[in-house]
Amino acid sequence: MVPRGRAGLALALAVVAGCAPALESRDFARGAVRLDLSAGALPAPVTLTFLGVGGWLIETPRTRVLTAPLFSNPSLWRAGFATIDADTAAIAEGLARFGAPDVSDVTAILSGHAHYDHLMDVPWIAGRLARDARIVVNTTGARTLAPILARWDIDPSRVDDVSDAAADVNGGGRWISLGPDLRLLPLRSDHAPHFAGMTLYDGERREDMPVPPVAADEWLEGQTLAFLLEVLDGRGGVALRIYVQDAVAREPWGFVPAGTDSVDVAILVPATYAEVDWHPEAVLENTRARHVLLGHWENFFVAPSPDPAPVPFTLLPDFVARLRRALGGDDGRWTLPLPGTRVEIR
Ligand SMILES: [Zn+2]
Fold first, then answer.
1. How far is the CA of 115 from the centre of ligand 1 (A)?
2. I need a surface site. Which of 101, 115, 189, 336 has the fewest CB within 10 A?
3. 269 vs 229: CA distance, rounded Å
């Protein structure tokens, strides 16, 4: 429960933030960005390449993983009223264009929930390009993918339902190895309403879908997860912590367990931030993130672009103003990347 006083203050903040100036070109990162965060603990840089929407290619010295990208981008009309499907040409072009031309050695594709913008393009990538990758999803995601796997020759054992491994702010959960120097802790999270308090396509699947989904409203959310990734230094220590959020959540959903050491980089979502209180303040307080990368901020109802417009229904300048305040006005602590931006962490 959020006390009334805080809710009122959040509303007041939102009203003040409503005056935020428009973003300028210099507010967006492009090309190569370098962050010095590991204090020499990393034997080689870790890179995070923004592929657009929820997609990131995360490369540690010895492991490469993807968070689920979307390139098919059905129009708002199609998503609302017609059938949708993965556009395989758009996926191949998008991966190559935005910095992931070869994903053949990717060990895992992570998706925190099962809406189409997080999962629809994954089976083709896993079946045709990243043939050894596990698909790390929630239970509903696994059940939604079940009838699609045969189409792309994906062994069902590659689908890894990690819902039962999820931790929360009180602890619990189970670490999952993604490679020789990378491990993952799923976090029980939540999904903010899309607009005006309404969440589209919520609900869970208790059985495998009998046939592949053909409409957006068949891609049900399930229990949304966030992820804590730890890059290991090979000597039993953690060289870097990366927090990955793929939907805005109400506190304390999506929090890392209390007592977790501070996160170095948090990937946070601006889209729909105003539908909950205290985003991003609450998750920043919980993770103590030293640097914030913003993903899933662009309009994904039009074709992918290297210079996209913000997603409808979200006032991105207001979110950025609020993030700036939460980070004490330090513009060295956040990055708003254009698709294709490659963030190198040393
Ligand atoms: Zn969603």
1. 5
2. 101
3. 17
Name the average pLDDT for the chain: 93
User: How far does residue 44's CA lie from ligand 1's centre (Å)?
Assistant: 34
Model confidence at 14: pLDDT above 50: no
Whether residue 302 is predicted with pLDDT greater than 60 in this model: the reply is yes
Confidence (pLDDT) at 12: 44
| Ligand 1 geometric centre to CA of 199 (Å) | 9
233 Cα to the center of ligand 1, angstroms = 33
Instruction: Please indicate whether residue 312 or residue 251 has the higher confidence score (pLDDT).
Output: 251
Neighbours of 71 (CB within 10 A): 27
Cα of 223 vs centre of ligand 1, distance in Å, is 11
Evaluate if residue 321 carries a pLDDT over 80: yes
Q: What does the angle CA 230 – CA 159 – CA 242 come to, to the nearest 5 degrees?
A: 15
Strand partners, 267: 244, 293
Q: Ligand 1 centroid vs 150 CA: distance in angstroms? A: 25
pTM over 0.90: yes
pLDDT of residue 18: 55
Q: Which CATH number fits domain 31-345: 3.40.50.150, 3.40.50.2300, 3.30.300.10, 3.60.15.10?
A: 3.60.15.10
For residues 214 and 115, what is the distance between their CA atoms, to the nearest angstrom?
12
**Any idea what the Cα angle at residue 105 is, between residues 92 and 345, rounded to 5°?**
90
Å from CA of 118 to ligand 1 middle: 7
224 Cα–ligand 1 center, Å: 8
Average pLDDT over every residue of 234-251: 94
Which pLDDT score, from 0 to 100, does residue 314 have?
Answer: 84
